[in-house]
Write a structure and sequence with these properties.
This is Rhodanese-like domain-containing protein. By secondary structure, this protein is of the alpha/beta class. Helix content is 41%, strand content 12%. The chain starts with a helix and ends with a helix.
């Protein structure tokens, strides 16, 4: 009898702790983060009950973002070496190849017809006003109507950069996961 009582007490305590933890995550981690507005979709106007004894009340119309929902962000198109080779030989005015490596890395080589917008030193670049962007980088800010195709050294920064571009309103995005390493390997073998 004692072990059954203790077990049921432990189960109810665990579920209570889980509820407290889930509320704390929603209140502090998600809503306090800079991207919290994307994780919780709030209604236009939330009504807070007047007789509420809690200091922290979430709006009743909250919807938790699930990983299988796109949340309106379009996934990027994935490019391979052949696609990028065609684009570098025959530039398309509706597609822009974006090298997100640092300028010191770009000095060692780059894919022809690519522009350089470094991800690490200027992650905010695509959120800048057009005149400030042009002053900082020396070329016109890419239009949101054009497709931006990102590459870096090995594909990691380019993936982050294309996700960030999506947050800045660029729906037409692509990623070349093989990036510079793949380009150099294929170019040196003559494929």
């Amino acid at each position: 009898m004692r072990s059954t009582l203790a077990r049921s007490t432990r189960v109810s305590l665990r579920s209570a702790e889980r509820g407290v933890w889930q509320r704390a995550v929603r209140l502090y981690s998600i809503s306090a983060s800079p991207f919290g507005r994307e994780l919780l979709l709030f209604p236009a106007r939330a009504e807070i009950p007047q007789n509420s004894s809690s200091r922290f009340v979430l709006p009743t119309g909250c919807q938790r973002f699930q990983s299988n929902q796109t949340g309106g962000i379009v996934p990027p198109k994935i490019y391979n070496y052949e696609d990028i080779k065609k684009l570098s030989l025959n530039p398309d005015e509706d597609k822009i190849l974006v090298d997100v490596r640092e300028p010191a890395e770009v000095e060692l080589g780059f894919i022809p017809n690519a522009i350089n917008i470094p991800y690490k030193s200027a992650p905010h670049a695509l959120s800048l006003p057009e005149d400030v962007f042009e002053e900082q980088f020396g070329f016109e800010k890419p239009s949101k109507q054009k497709e931006l195709i990102f590459y870096c050294l090995g594909g990691v920064r380019s993936n982050y950069a294309q996700e960030l571009a999506g947050n800045f309103g660029y729906d037409k995005r692509g990623n070349y996961p093989g990036s510079w390493e793949d380009w150099v390997q294929k170019e040196s073998t003559g494929k």
